[in-house]
Amino acid sequence: MADMDTPIKVKTQNIFLTLMGKQADRKLIYLVCWMAMVKEWPLVVTDFYRKGSRGVHGTDPVRGLDIRSWIYPDPRAIEFEINDNWIYDNTRPDKQVALYHNAGSGYHFHLQVHPLTEFVGPQKEFIDIQRFIAGLI
To answer: CA 15 to CA 13: how far, in whole Å?
Structure first.
């Protein structure tokens, strides 16, 4: 697992402040940690909490996060790798943890978790994530 050298940036001050003020779902924290610490992908958070949203960006704790995609040479490969390692909800196989899409403001990754989200990648990676986070919180 990588050290803390993988950059994680935030697009705006407002998004940074919502990251500071709203609780993220633990599974979303695990996902972001896996992306940054295990896969060593640099991250730019472009959206988190949306007041009044009825989707995962408006839940408490927050279960949605948007990440800039154009910083990667092959965004589709990133999307596939995330979804190969994370299952959103095994009762709804049509739902995915990572969506690479354009919802009107340009292509980006929409990341989402659910109470039934599970990591199905190498078990050692998930144990490393849990240990790392336990050391922080």
So the answer is: 5
3-state secondary structure of 119: strand
Q: How far apart are CA 77 and CA 128, in angstroms?
A: 23
Residue 67 in contact with residue 46, Cβ under 8 Å?
Answer: yes
pTM of the model: 0.92
Q: Are 62 and 28 in contact (CB under 8 A)?
A: yes
**pLDDT for 27-77, tens place per residue?**
999 999 999 989 999 999 999 999 999 999 999 999 999 999 999 999 999
Under 8 Å between Cβ of 69 and 107? yes
- 39-43, long-range: CB < 8 A, 24+ apart: 39/81, 40/2, 40/6, 41/6, 41/72, 41/78, 42/6, 42/7, 42/8, 42/9, 42/71, 43/6, 43/7, 43/8, 43/9, 43/67, 43/68
Mapped onto helix, strand or coil, the DSSP state of residue 65 is strand
State whether residue 98 is helix, strand or coil. Answer: strand
Instruction: Let me know: does 87 contact 97? Beta carbons within 8 Å.
Output: yes
